Amino acid sequence: VQHFSDFELVFVGKNKSAQTSSRYSGTPDPIHVNDGVTNRFMIHSAAGDPMPWVMLDMDQPHVVFGARVWNRLDNTWNERFTQISFGVTNNPAVWTAFNSHLFQLCFYYTDVPTVADNPIKVNCSKPIVGRYFAIYKNITGLSSSQQYINIFEIDILAMAKGASLCVSSAQSSFPAASSALLTRWSGLKSPRLDCIFKCTAQPACLFALVIPGNGDCLLFGPSGGLAGFIGGSCFRCVAVLE
């Protein structure tokens, strides 16, 4: 468990369903990439794989903040962990047919890690909501011996369910689907609302509006439908998981 600002981050539970693009002969089933064992069952892509990837189904959407990966350490094969994208999506199509373009990029790792870097830790450039998490490799310019993913374990860092995410940016506009609803509420007639906070247009996200003058909050779903009354001052807190 980690705490950032005033919200809580936790590691997503273990033993999630997993898939890989390919398997090197004799290597373990991909389920072991999320079984809590960090030094025994190595997930290893096969030779000739044009874009090696490992993907996890987290069972439900999470607000993902980052990850840590236990990399291979023997010989110099730790150096294979480079040109790796960390991605998150809520699109179930990826589970049937992997498509890197359907993932939102959390982080692109271009360093060449040393043994001391294990586990490799990354933070997303911004929180991303989704059910599916993947790492996938760009093999462009790499030697044939570097074109593999060989790792032991993946941990995913996400916001604790029920916590609130505090954001630093406010937007002065809102979707047309919301505006019709807002005009029905007294106190929201002014074209200048105190603030509006939106998350990433993902199904698991909500956003809050502050009513000018009294600080009360109205909670809206991603479609603009009214989800509830929060009451009191909501400050800058949004992105509550449904």
TrEMBL record:
- Protein name, UniProt field: F5/8 type C domain-containing protein
InterPro entries registered for this protein in UniProt: FA58C (IPR000421), Galactose-bd-like_sf (IPR008979)
Q: Where is the F5/8 type C domain?
A: 19-137
Q: What is the lineage of its organism?
A: Eukaryota, Metazoa, Spiralia, Lophotrochozoa, Platyhelminthes
Q: Name one Pfam family in it.
A: F5_F8_type_C
